[in-house]
Write a structure and sequence with these properties.
197 residues; alpha/beta; Rossmann fold; five-stranded parallel beta sheet; two-stranded antiparallel ribbon; 7 strands; 42% helix; globular
Length: 197
C-alpha cells in the first residue's frame, strides 16, 4: 500500500479565536477524511523576527526558518487560509515565507524554494465582512506560484460572514460553501498524490 500524502495546514492569522485558523482546521479534517496526513503549523511558534539581511548576516538563520524548510521538505502540499489586512496578505505569512525563500540547501536538505517547487497549494480566506478576504487571494496565488513554484489549484474559497458558517470541526454549516471546500481539498489531495508519484 502506498503511503498517504502529507499536507501542511497553515493560517496566516494565529490570534486567539482566529476564523482563518478555524477554517484551515476544517479543511485539514476534510483532507484527513480523504486519507491524507496533515500537520497544522503555528507560524507564531516559529518565533521568526522581521526579515532583515543585516540580522541574518550577524546571527544566521533563525531556527524557525530552518524548521519551516524541513516541514515543507517532508510534506507534499499546502492548505493555506490567509485573511487580508488592508487588502494584502498578513505580515505573519509574508515574513515566514520571506525567511523560507533564503534558507540555503544543507547536505541532503534542499533550499527553501526547492522544498516547495511543484507542490500543490489550496487557498482559503475568511472574514467577518462581506468580501471574505477575496482581495488578498490573487496576491497570495502570485506570491506562491511565482516565487515558490507551487502549483496553486484553481479552486479557492473566500468565506464571507465567516462566524455564521464556522463552528463545526469538520464541515461548514452552509452546504454550498461546504461543497466548495470539499472540492478545493480534494483537488489539493489529488495533486499532492500526483506530485508524490
Amino acid at each position: 500500500m502506498s503511503t498517504p500524502v502529507r499536507l501542511l495546514a497553515i493560517s496566516g492569522s494565529v490570534r486567539e479565536g482566529s476564523i482563518n485558523q478555524q477554517l484551515v482546521e476544517v479543511a485539514a479534517a476534510k483532507a484527513r477524511a480523504l486519507g491524507a496526513e496533515v500537520t497544522v503549523v503555528d507560524l507564531r511558534a516559529l518565533a521568526l523576527p522581521v526579515f532583515d539581511a543585516d540580522l541574518l548576516a550577524a546571527q544566521g538563520f533563525p531556527a524557525g526558518a530552518l524548521a519551516l524548510r524541513d516541514l515543507f521538505a517532508s510534506h507534499d502540499g499546502l492548505l493555506l487560509s490567509n485573511p487580508e489586512y488592508n487588502a494584502l496578505p498578513t505580515p505573519l505569512f509574508v515574513n515566514a515565507f520571506d525567511w523560507l525563500s533564503v534558507v540555503p540547501a544543507d547536505g541532503d536538505k534542499p533550499d527553501g524554494k526547492a522544498v516547495t517547487a511543484g507542490k500543490p497549494a489550496g487557498l482559503l480566506a475568511a472574514s467577518p465582512g462581506a468580501l471574505g478576504g477575496i482581495r488578498a487571494l490573487p496576491i497570495v496565488r502570485t506570491f506562491l506560484s511565482t516565487n515558490f513554484a507551487m502549483v496553486v489549484v484553481p479552486e479557492q474559497l473566500a468565506l464571507p460572514s465567516a462566524p455564521q458558517h464556522l463552528g463545526e470541526p469538520s464541515a461548514l454549516k452552509t452546504p454550498a460553501l461546504d461543497q466548495a471546500l470539499d472540492k478545493l481539498v480534494a483537488s489539493v489531495v489529488k495533486q499532492a498524490g500526483w506530485f508524490k508519484g
